[in-house]
Amino acid sequence: MIVRIMGEGQVELADSHFTELNKLDDELLAEMESGDESGFRRTLTALLDKVRQLGTPLPDDALEPSELILPSPEATLDEVREMLSDDGLIPG
Fold first, then answer.
1. By C-alpha distance, which of 72, 53, 55 is closest to 64?
2. From 54's CA, which of 3, 20, 22, 32 has a CA 20 to 30 Å away?
3. Dihedrals phi, psi of 88, to nearest 5 degrees
4. Is residue 86 within 8 Å of 19, Cβ to Cβ?
């Protein structure tokens, strides 16, 4: 799956990694619902770091359609709320 981190670029992630990423996504959703700003910031950073660690970066000139778009590390709680679906940032 091709994943874009806003402001950074794209990575390709194997589907097998999404179980691990969904755990962080669930934590992020819970922190957002409770208004836990520091927890939200910590978990968003952990989620994006894990995507970078597990993914293979695509060249900057690649024009692949992104199947998933994640917020930038500087995104606010309100900005991320606008990006959410019922499943969080990561479907499943």
1. 55
2. 32
3. 100, -155
4. no
Amino acid 87: pLDDT:
67
Q: What is the DSSP string of 11-77?
A: EE--GGGHHHHHHHHHHHHHHHHHT-HHHHHHHHHHHHHHHHHHSEEPPTT--PPPSEEE--TT--H
At 29-65, the pLDDT tens digits run 999 989 999 999 999 999 999 999 999 999 988 888 9
Residue keyed to tokens 């969080």:
88
DSSP code of residue 1: -
State which H helix or E strand residue 2 sits in: strand 2-5
State the pLDDT at residue 44: 96
- Per cent of the chain over pLDDT 70 is 96
Q: Round to whole Å and give the CA distance between 61 and 84.
A: 28
